[in-house]
Design brief:
Distance between the termini of chain A: 31 Å
CATH topology of chain B: outer membrane lipoprotein receptor (LolB), chain A
Oligomer: heterodimer
Mean pLDDT of chain B: 89
Radius of gyration of chain A: 31 Å
Number of helices of chain A: 16
Strand content of chain B: over 45%
Order of helices and strands of chain B: HHEEEEEEHEEEEEEEH
Radius of gyration of chain B: 20 Å
Structural class of chain B: alpha+beta
Largest sheet of chain B: 13 strands, antiparallel
Helix content of chain A: 40-55%
Low-confidence stretches of chain A: none
Strand order of the largest sheet of chain A: 2-3-8-5-7-6
Number of helices of chain B: 4
Strand content of chain A: 15-25%
Shape of chain A: elongated
Distance between the termini of chain B: 76 Å
Chain lengths: 424, 244
Amino acid sequence: MIRFLFKGLIRDKHRSLLPIIVVALGVMLTVVFHSWLTGVISDSIEYNARFTTGHVKVMTMAYADNLDQMPNDLALLDADSLTGILKKEFPEMDWVERIHFAGLIDVADHSGETRTQGNTIGFGIDILSPNSAEIDRMNIRKSIVKGGLPKKHSEILMSNELADDMKLKPGDTVSLISSTMYGEMAIYNFTIAGTVVFGTSFLDRGTIITDITDARQALNMEGASGEILGLSRKGYFDKNEASGIAETFNRRYNKPDDEFSPVMKTLMEQNNLGALVDYSSAILAVLVSVFLLAMSIVLWNAGLLGGLRRYGEFGMRLAIGEEKGHVYKTMIYESLLIGTFGSMAGVALGMIFAWYFQHYGLNLKGMMQNATIIMPTIFKARITPVTWLIGFIPGIFSTLIGTMLSGIGIYKRQTAQLFKELEA
Amino acid sequence: MKILLAILFTGISVVYAQYPDGKDILKKIDQNLSSENRVFTSKMVIHGRRASRTIESKTWTAGEKKSFTEYLFPAREQGTKMLKLEDQLWIYSPSTDRIIQIAGHMLRQSVMGSDLSYEDLMEDNRLLNHYNAVVTGTENIADRPCWVVKLTAFDPNMAYQGLRLWVDKERNIPLKEEMFAKSGTLLKRSELSNVENINGRWYPKKIVFKDMLKDGEGTEFIIENIQFNVAIPDYIFSKANLKK
């Protein structure tokens, strides 16, 4: 019967063309939006994980309470031994110490007086160790625009935008003015080894990156670290894995009555990322529902128009003894075929656009100037297995619902009237 | 009714008449605390949330406009110098060999992690120059009878728009101070003790500052040695002296 219906659809274009176009367009939009949203959210999570949050992060409870202020006076003391424990007890993650700080970059004139100053956010990471994975993790090598990687102590990487604003170049010396772990003013000289562009406004506005030992020296944090980041060896954020590790760690090491005891937070508990992920899931659900509803209404109307056009055909079929239920059933089967073909066409079209956005992205730098969370400025789509399937939900269900609604008219036909109608 | 009001008014007048003039008290305080110049060595014990630290320094002051401080201890701070000239402040960091001017929001930063800000160091200490004063009552502080004096700033740009002082009636020295913002929020509190008579003036050798907006147990400022009205060469208050 399917073959019979299929032939009918192929031969009678009026029956199939408009519904297939409507379904294909809706599915295409669903696929493009889904891939784009997935890409933006995944990139944002990954950027945040690599630069600030980790997949999990260990801090003191007092530090965690004031995380936005980067309160290094509340940092973890004897961080190396805690890192050792984490490496031993949770080998499924890579553990790295970080110091995150804020301050001013001060540039002297020839007489040693301040020529210019600029605000900066600093990252103290492991750059100089031979086996450090931090450079690749933060994609630093590819982000360098001028100069090169720091090769020795007291060298920094500076965001290219900040360097240009302050008329600085690799080889220039700058002073960092910040606060030490004890709240005193910290003044420390650095030499610019290179400038970088990360492709995220929050970081490109004014970031410096230094080796963690220099950050410790500058901020009087010997043996201390603000944060210890855990990054899953799977290479992506696994919510269940992160939650499990955090729960185990906090049960073993967190003492709620000691504000300086370590606490582990997952990525979802930091920088409002949990809300971001929930929000994006909600948007996706709304998006699919809207397309489903809109296409159902359009296809309902298309079905009603088709029903009018095929009024005679249905009358004849009923007149020669076909059951109303059977006619209705064949319409449903037809709609499933239309939905499937329309969805396939829509997925194919959507994938072309999704692939384009995955490779080239959409540059929204102008809209991201004041972003306070780490997000890429080039928004790229990401094609996942779900992207291939998500379009079929509105594609098939909309045709099904549309046909089911329009097909109800079959049951309203009066058999006694059929021959009169056919004679007319 | 008129008689009742007259009695009430007379009563209030009599009560206030018992209090000295606020300006007179400020004048006496300034006479004790201000001087043409002074040189002192001090110790600052900063009680943070986790631990306490001690910082030692030597300060040269001429009037209220010039001041030079050299930090002596601990080793990390040794050689750090600070120069105040009029309304400008510079800090010299020996490890970087840089002189940095402290301006703008940096003035609100803590000095060496203490409960004092750079802005506090910039303030002219002569109360009479900046505040109106009214005596509002009497209270005992450390078993000493004190006038409670309420001060209001003339200048809306003063860091502290209001002060409340508990002034020792006999020695004319504040034993407790509270500093308020324009909104009335209590910003800092200080307690002055170890009051000694030095060259005919009463002077507190220990002050405990507490920044009310900051965690921690406050900062003890202890004067170990102080000399008033000694000759200070001009070069001390020069930027060239920062790098010496």
